[in-house]
Amino acid sequence: MDDIKKYLTVRDVAKRFGLTEEWIRDLIAKKEIKAVKIGQWRIKPADLEAFIKSRQNVK
After folding, report:
1. 32: DSSP letter
2. Considering only the top CATH level, what class is 4-55?
3. Closest among 2, 8, 6, 1 to 27, alpha carbons compared
4. If pLDDT is split at 50, 70 and 90, which confidence band does 43 have?
5. Residue ranges of the domains in the chain?
6. Closest to 46 in 3D by CA, of 11, 10, 6, 3
7. Residue 15 — very low, low, confident or very high, per pLDDT cuts 50/70/90?
């Protein structure tokens, strides 16, 4: 398994984008952001990058 310290928390992601933690959790619940629950939800940086790329309107 990847080193857990490399994963981002919901709080990390919310702060990075100026969003609420609740909104990030909703995206996880809708399976729009891939995450794993290890005590709390954790997001691999690569999965966050994939989510961002999937939301771009540039082809």
Report:
1. S
2. alpha beta
3. 8
4. very high
5. 4-55
6. 6
7. very high
Report the first-to-last Cα separation within the chain, whole angstroms.
33
Helix (H) or strand (E) holding 42: strand 40-43
Q: Residue 40 pairs with which residues in a beta bridge? A: 38
In whole angstroms, what is the distance from residue 11 CA to residue 22 CA? 9
- In sequence order, which ranges of the chain are alpha helices (DSSP H)? 10-17, 21-29, 45-55
- Please tell me the predicted confidence (pLDDT) of residue 58: 75
Instruction: Write down how long the chain is.
Output: 59
Residue pair 7/36 in contact (Cβ under 8 Å)? The answer is: yes
16 to 1, 10, 19, 48: CA distances (angstroms): 25, 10, 8, 11
